[in-house]
Amino acid sequence: MRGNIGDMNTWLAQKRICVTGGAGFLGSRIVAYLRAIGCEDVFVVRRRDYDLVRGDDVRRLYCDARPDVVIHLAAVVGGIGANRENPGCFFYENMMMGVQLIEGARVHEVEKFVQVGTICAYPKFTPVPFNESDLWNGYPEETNAPYGVAKKALLVQCQAYRDQYGMNAIYLLPVNLYGPRDNFDPASSHVIPALIRKCIDAVDAGRSTIEVWGTGSPTREFLYVDDAAEGIVLATESYDGRDPVNIGSGREIRISELVKIVATETGFEGEIIWDSTRPNGQPRRALDVSRAEACFGFKARTDFREGLRRTIEWYRTNRAQRQHMPRTAAKCELVAPKA
């Protein structure tokens, strides 16, 4: 536990909290934060127990959990390749989970609903840094538009339910996350774990080249997963507004520079081959994070290189075990959310 959050005289500690995706990459950190600030009644939702795409399972969840607060993290996610292969699945399952959970929160008179959205909801050519007021000024980048649109529709539902029913629903927009226990499966991983695995595998195999998608020209912003968890818990505790809020580090990096940093930190000294026939994705991503700091005091703490080193060390330590585990298909796999 870091920062001032552990010193809260917290409203949340008295509440029964339901966290969907609570056993996942981000969710497990949020659950840990909640327990560290004194929340003893945390209900972790796992897919093996509840398929949130199914209405009957959502209704059963609310009857079983009886939550005062719901933090909805569960999502079907993946990198550019997974989004291109599964656009219908990504749209349908993310939409159905969110729509039914928000409606269930209304029916069961939940005190607060926290919808975690995605930076993929922003228009393709949003001016940098992305301000929340620009969310509707265009269509998302094509390779992840179905996912982004489905998530953005849940913002509309949260605001509509606030207006009609007085429901306290908030909407958060986390940037790309990274950290230990990330998804390193090349079929569905995001850029940082994918690069770490490529570089380390190449070093171990003695290969002199790695191939990377695109041209390296796009930029991205990354947030260490523990920082993201802290921001979401702070918002759950302290933010009750209707407007969406960015959760990020406020630091932008070009993909070409990211690849060099990962190569250096993993010890890969070979040639980087850019496959320009592969999509780049959104040209730039970087957030205006001033609203989060103003509304609930969140500011990212983890230095990027330090967070990257922790992630690399975790993968080196755990890869042997993970590589011998059976892999789940990327299609329609319910995992913790990332942008």
Q: Key features?
A:
single chain; 339 residues; alpha/beta; 6-stranded parallel sheet; 3-stranded mixed sheet; 13 strands; 15% strand; globular; disordered C terminus
Task: Tell me about this structure.
Strands 2-1-3-5-6-10 form a six-stranded parallel beta sheet, with helices on both faces. Strands 7-9-11 form a three-stranded mixed beta sheet. It has 339 residues and is an alpha/beta fold. Helix content is 40%, strand content 15%. Helix 1 packs across helix 7 and helix 6 packs across helix 8 (255-266).
User: Would you tell me the overall average pLDDT?
Assistant: 91
Percent helix, as a range, is 40-55%
State the secondary-structure class. alpha/beta
Query: Alpha-carbon distance between the termini?
Result: 24 Å
Q: What sort of overall outline do the alpha carbons produce when their principal axes are compared?
A: globular
| Strand order, largest beta sheet | 2-1-3-5-6-10
Binned strand content = 15-25%
Largest sheet: 6 strands, parallel
SSE string, helices as H and strands as E? EHEHEEHHEHEEHEEHEEHEHHE
> What is the C-alpha radius of gyration, as a whole number of Å?
19 Å
DSSP helix count? Answer: 10
Question: How many strands?
Answer: 13
